[in-house]
Amino acid sequence: MTSLTYRQLKTILEKTYSKSDLVLIEKAYKFADKAHEGQMRASGVTYIEHCLHTAKNLAELKLPTPIIIAGLLHDVPEDTQTPLSAIKKEFGAEIAKMVEGITKLSNIKYRGIDRYVENLRKMFIAMAQDIRVILIKFADRLHNLQTLYALPADKQKRIALETLEIYTPIANRLGIGELQGRLEDAAFKYAYPDEYIKIEQIIKKNLPQKQKALEIMIKKVKSQLDKEGIKYYNIYGRTKHYYSFYRKYLKYNKDISQIYDLIAMRIIANSVSDCYAALGIIHNIWKPIAGRIKDHIAQPKPNGYQSLHTAVFGENKEIIEIQIRTKEMHEQAEFGIAAHWNYKESGNKTTDKNIQWVNDLATWIKKIKDNDALLEGAKIDIFQNRIFVFTPRGDVIDLPDGATPVDFAYHIHSDIGNKCTQAIINNQQVALDHKLKNGDIIQIVTDKNRKGPNPEWLKFVKTRTARQHIETFKNKNWKKFIPKFTK
Ligand code: MN
After folding, report:
1. Which residue, of 102, 240, 256, 451, has the greatest Cβ tally within 10 A?
2. What does DSSP assign to residue 81?
3. Cα dihedral sign for 275, 279, 202, 167?
4. What pLDDT shows up at residue 339?
5. Which CATH number fits the domain that encloses residue 28?
6. Residues 216, 285: one domain?
7. Backbone CA torsion sign across 83, 85, 90, 93
8. 369 located within any domain
9. Is 373 exposed, middle or buried (0-12, 13-18, 19+ CB in 10 A)?
10. Gap from CA of 166 to ligand 1 centroid (Å)
11. How many CB atoms lie within 10 A of CB 198?
């Protein structure tokens, strides 16, 4: 990790923050520096450097001054003799409240999957109160990961896994793509070292030829857009984050020929209509691959992500993905919820939509917190691809995307799962492997004489609960047929 002094941080801050803001930030730096005086980190550098890095990570998201200040002060009450009341006195209640939030969060320790539910709940309650606290926590965690080499192996692994299981799914849900990618890559190395090396080798082997093709393609696109009079803000190549690549690698059963976006061309256009115009121009130059054109502008992802995606047979027969979006969409993709606090766009303004969204999420977490089995099965995927369906009495049931009536039945009760014979959705009978959709009203018909689940159901169930019940039943019955041996 490169060292960082306040003078260096200041050079970065000066690009975004005003002189009067810098005065306040410097005051916080001096306060933290004094409080942490003489303290060293396990990595052998002074403690204040960790605070400076945290502030730098936040400044890169262009977050407002109070967040930068809280970032500098974040470890003061926890790790020094200076109390929270002193921060409140010097910097006011708002900043003190944020620092208090981080201090509370730092008491969360990963103690395996059984503690996971509780951890998650605390994170979300803290977040619902103030998302800025979570952002500071992420910035803090990123630097901790970047200095993990100084810690013993078991601690490295624990912190890395905790990051991938708790932090980054939340970053994803908040749409903070850039920070999520950085956190994941920093953790990946320690969580799955062998896989990390493997992915690094694959990327290094495949990148150069793709980069070469991409360079030629960017030139062609620029000249064609100019010719057609379509204005753009920027066109550049982006390389996929390692962990994100690893996830796709697993998804496509380690067949890298299926992964088209190791490198991608990004076009930041001036308007939505320019995005579609650019897409047309690209398809005019290179042949698009069928089924890979995705209009996330018309249909944004659940976390707000918007872009047009296509993959084309590009130069030198390389398949290249192209992502087209406006500047606003780009900022949403990189900064997500943080984009709404963007420093230059005025203070701490958040849209009602965002606040509503956070409240919904917090309510949801509180609701499912009582159902450990559901959470356990969901684990990493917890915030993605969920569907909400109804019981005939109107209770909301939350299931993973692709779940079937059998998953629903087991979710209600294991006995209903074991004895289910028919499913009726919105008054129509459907097959038991039917994929449920958001808003479906589901009625399960059971047969009390039924002996148990059909092992064939294992081919389509999506939840761990269902799988476990079916497997347990299958194994139990199978054992009955094992001949008993006598000596
Ligand atoms: Mn810290």
Report:
1. 102
2. S
3. positive
4. 63
5. 1.10.3210.10
6. yes
7. positive
8. no
9. middle
10. 17
11. 14
What distance in angstroms lies between residue 140's CA and the mean position of ligand 1's atoms? 5
DSSP string, 148-181: GGGS-HHHHHHHHHHIIIIIHHHHHHTT-HHHHH
pTM value is: 0.66
* Structural domain contains residue 97: yes
In single-letter form, the type of residue at position 216 comes to I
Dist. CA 59 → ligand 1 center (Å):
16
Question: Measured in angstroms, how far is the CA atom of residue 245 from the centroid of ligand 1?
Answer: 29
Residues in the chain, how many?
487
pLDDT category at 114 given cuts 50, 70, 90 is: low
- Residues recognised as catalytic: 78-79
Name the residue among 105, 3, 94, 97 with its Cα closest to residue 56. 3
- Do residues 96 and 218 both lie within one domain? no
162 is a domain residue: yes
Cα(74) to centroid(ligand 1), Å? 6
- Based on the fold, state whether residues 389 and 318 are members of the same structural domain: no
Same domain for 303 and 265: yes
d(CA 161, CA 164): 5
The structure tokens 């074991």 sit at 418
